[in-house]
């Protein structure tokens, strides 16, 4: 291979490689169309050459001076045509490969969703439409949207509930930087524990986003806390807002994740079903989970009354009554709640109470940069790949299925027509 050809070949590879990475939308031309473009380009180049040379013949001196320049231009044009054809051909192959891989992975994921949810054909059309739309317009791919739906299906949610909850869940995952599937697991498990409906997912995720950003914790750790605290808090009728407030105050004192969850569980358990020790502490401090009519007080009311009761105690008394009230497991968390500064308590309370739209706003802010633009571009390419796959998947399936039949028949005929070879 000559030096010039070697350079051309290297250039083809480089351009093809770059286009394989970016997979531009424009690379949908067939080979026949590419050859036609090449022929037209060559014809145009030849016509330009004839016209240009005819004009130059009128002045030999001018022709002699400009001929080398023209020849250089003509050769460059031919090389450019070759490079364009090679690059676009490579991009077409790359785009097709990308579309098939993307489509197969997505189809497999949605099959899992269908198997778990037992969704009807109509339901699957809606789920598919939602997943593909979110995959093309958010930071998450369609397959990842399907993974979020998988956790929702495992929680027993139906198709409508999934469609209602997935967008908000994705906003929370984008805002927090947590894995989408894990956030989906947190949302479904915790909302179930608090007896919340799927249509309330947007508010639920807003509360978590506000609590995580206004205290010293994150969504993942709050989710871990909910594993231990939410079932009991929900059964007592406590809200996600007040539970998040208590866990956020604990987090500000370094008590997070499972430690915060078990601490809160111990505290509430000993007040809901008092031991002799916790009953004595509640009587001494004037605390109760119920009002004078026997109705359960909101958790925030309980927290405020407990903070007020502890405010007049000495340090040693606070430790003593915290241990009596919440036990060894829960006393640290309780002390973190009652000893939080009034300013910190108000700040976190206000953030949670005015959290509407928090998750979406945080997600948009986090993406407002070049890296976010690139991420959205990748999602758009994922969506484009699925559009292409939808057009070619049936012929591809036919080919694969026919190939499977041929291999099966070949193996059968081979076995029937060739004697078995025994080895000793």
The first-to-last residue Cα distance is 54 Å
Number of helical segments with 4 or more residues: 17
Strand content: under 5%
**How many beta-strand runs?**
0
C-alpha Rg (nearest Å): 34 Å
Biggest sheet statistics: none
Morphology = elongated
As an assembly, this protein is single chain
Going by helix content, strand content and strand pairing, the class is mainly alpha
Q: Please write the string of helix (H) and strand (E) elements.
A: HHHHHHHHHHHHHHHHH
Mean pLDDT: 83
Residue windows where pLDDT falls under 50 for at least 5 positions:
5-31, 58-63
Assign a percent range to the helix content: over 70%
Topology:
Layout: H1 3-22, H2 31-56, H3 60-117, H4 121-137, H5 142-154, H6 159-176, H7 180-193, H8 201-214, H9 219-235, H10 240-252, H11 257-272, H12 276-285, H13 299-311, H14 315-338, H15 342-353, H16 358-366, H17 370-417
Helix pairs in contact: 1-3, 2-3, 3-5, 3-17, 4-5, 4-6, 4-17, 5-6, 5-7, 6-7, 6-8, 6-16, 7-9, 8-10, 8-15, 8-16, 9-10, 9-11, 10-11, 10-14, 10-15, 11-14, 12-14
Folded structure, characterized:
Helix 2 packs antiparallel against helix 3 (60-117), helix 4 crosses helix 17 and helix 7 (180-193) runs parallel beside helix 9 (219-235). By secondary structure, the protein is mostly helical. Mean pLDDT is 83; it is low at 5-31 and 58-63. The protein has 17 helices and no strands. The chain has helices at residues 3-22, 31-56, 60-117, 121-137, 142-154, 159-176, 180-193, 201-214, 219-235, 240-252, 257-272, 276-285, 299-311, 315-338, 342-353, 358-366, 370-417.
